[in-house]
Write a sequence for this structure.
C-alpha cells in the first residue's frame, strides 16, 4: 500500500478499532495471524466488560469474556483482540455457542477480579470457576445447556458461567499497544491482515484513539481543551462522520464547565485539580473521555477520542489522529483559548477552524476536502 498520504504523528497514541470476523472465524483467528506475522505468540486472558442487567433490582452485570494478547518474539505487547458488547446487530443471536467459548458474570466486579486472579482463562469454563468455588469452600453447580454457578458457603450467588451465545466470538476490538513512531505503518501492519482475512466494519462500530495525557495535566490545558471541544465538538462529529448507530457517546456533565470556568480553577495545583475533576461526574461513555485524568493510573493515563466511525482504512484513522493532535497542541500552548459558544456545522466555520490549527499541508488539504463534502 502507498504510504505517502499517511500523516506523520508525534503524540503517543493507542488505537482501538471495532471489527467483525467473517462467519467461521473469530477474534482469536486474527490474533493468531498477527502473532505469526511478528514471530510471537498469543496468550488468552479474561477481558472485563459491563452490560445492562435484565434481573430485577440489578442495574448491570459485569462480564469476563475471552481476550487474546499478541506478543512479538521478544515478549513485547503488540495488540489485543477482545470482545465489545456494543457490537450486536450483525450477529445471529440464536446461533449455537462455539465449543470452548464462554463468559463469567457477576453483579460484583470484585468477584470477577478474584476470578481473573484465581481462574484459568486458557482452559474450560470449569477451570475458570473451580478455583473460585474452592476459595469459598464450595463446589461448582452444573445446570442445563452448560450453565454453571458458584455460591458461597451461606448459599449466596457469587458467579455465573455460561457458554458464549449468539456468535459473540466474532466481534473483535483490535487494541494496539501505544504507538510512539511510524504510527501509520505500525497500524497498517495490524489492519492489513484483518482486511485480507475478510474482517468487516460492524454496524455500530467506532474507532477510539487514546492520546497520552502526561502533558495535559494542568488546569490551563484542561480548560483550553474543554473550550475547544465545547465550541467545535459538533463540527468535528460532522467532519469525521460519526456513526449514528454507535453506542455510548454523549456530552460531559454541566458540572465540568462550571468547574473549569470558576476563577479559582487556574490556580489549583494538579493534584487538587484532579480531585475536583473526579467530583463532577465524568463518564467514559461520552464523545471525549476525560475520566482517565482522574484515576492517577499510569496504565490508563490518556484522553480518549470516541467519535470516529469504524474503519479498516489506515489513512482515515491517522488523518483523524493528526487533526486531534493539532487540537491538543493548541490546548497545551500557554495562551488561553477564547470561550466561544458551540458552533453548529457550517462549512465556512469548519474551514476557518481547520486553517487555524496549523496542520501540515497534506492534512489541511484532506480535511478541507472532507468539509466540502459534508452535508447536514
Amino acid at each position: 500500500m502507498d504510504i505517502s498520504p499517511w500523516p506523520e504523528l508525534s503524540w503517543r497514541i493507542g488505537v482501538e478499532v471495532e471489527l467483525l470476523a467473517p462467519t467461521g472465524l473469530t477474534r482469536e483467528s486474527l490474533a493468531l495471524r498477527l502473532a505469526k506475522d511478528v514471530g510471537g505468540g498469543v496468550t488468552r486472558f479474561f477481558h472485563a466488560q459491563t452490560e445492562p442487567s435484565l434481573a430485577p433490582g440489578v442495574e448491570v452485570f459485569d462480564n469476563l469474556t475471552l481476550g487474546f494478547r499478541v506478543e512479538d518474539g521478544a515478549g513485547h505487547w503488540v495488540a489485543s483482540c477482545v470482545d465489545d458488547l456494543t457490537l450486536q446487530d450483525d450477529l445471529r443471536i440464536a446461533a449455537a455457542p462455539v465449543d470452548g467459548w464462554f463468559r463469567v458474570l457477576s453483579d460484583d466486579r470484585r468477584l470477577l477480579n478474584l476470578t481473573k486472579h484465581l481462574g484459568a482463562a486458557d482452559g474450560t469454563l470449569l477451570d475458570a470457576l473451580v478455583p473460585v468455588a474452592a476459595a469459598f469452600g464450595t463446589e461448582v453447580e452444573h445446570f442445563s445447556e452448560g450453565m454453571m454457578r458458584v455460591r458461597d458457603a451461606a448459599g449466596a450467588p457469587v458467579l455465573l458461567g455460561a457458554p458464549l451465545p449468539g456468535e459473540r466470538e466474532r466481534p473483535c476490538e483490535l487494541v494496539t499497544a501505544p504507538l510512539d513512531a511510524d504510527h501509520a505503518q505500525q497500524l497498517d501492519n495490524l489492519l492489513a491482515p484483518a482486511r485480507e482475512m475478510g474482517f468487516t466494519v460492524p454496524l455500530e462500530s467506532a474507532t477510539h484513539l487514546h492520546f497520552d495525557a502526561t502533558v495535559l495535566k494542568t488546569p490551563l490545558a484542561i480548560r483550553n481543551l474543554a473550550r475547544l471541544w465545547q465550541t467545535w465538538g459538533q463540527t468535528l462529529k460532522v467532519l469525521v462522520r460519526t456513526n449514528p448507530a454507535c453506542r455510548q457517546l454523549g456530552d460531559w456533565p454541566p458540572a465540568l464547565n462550571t468547574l473549569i470556568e470558576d476563577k479559582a480553577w487556574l490556580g489549583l495545583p494538579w493534584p487538587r485539580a484532579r480531585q475536583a475533576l473526579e467530583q463532577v461526574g465524568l463518564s467514559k461513555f461520552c464523545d471525549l473521555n476525560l475520566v482517565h485524568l482522574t484515576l492517577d493510573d499510569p496504565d490508563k493515563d490518556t484522553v480518549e477520542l470516541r467519535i470516529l466511525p469504524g474503519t479498516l482504512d489506515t489513512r482515515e484513522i491517522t488523518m483523524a489522529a493528526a487533526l486531534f493532535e493539532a487540537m491538543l497542541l493548541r490546548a497545551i500552548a500557554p495562551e488561553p483559548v477564547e470561550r466561544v459558544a458551540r458552533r453548529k456545522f457550517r462549512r465556512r466555520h469548519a474551514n476557518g477552524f481547520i486553517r487555524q490549527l496549523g496542520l501540515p499541508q497534506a492534512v489541511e488539504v484532506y480535511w478541507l476536502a472532507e468539509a466540502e463534502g459534508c452535508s447536514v
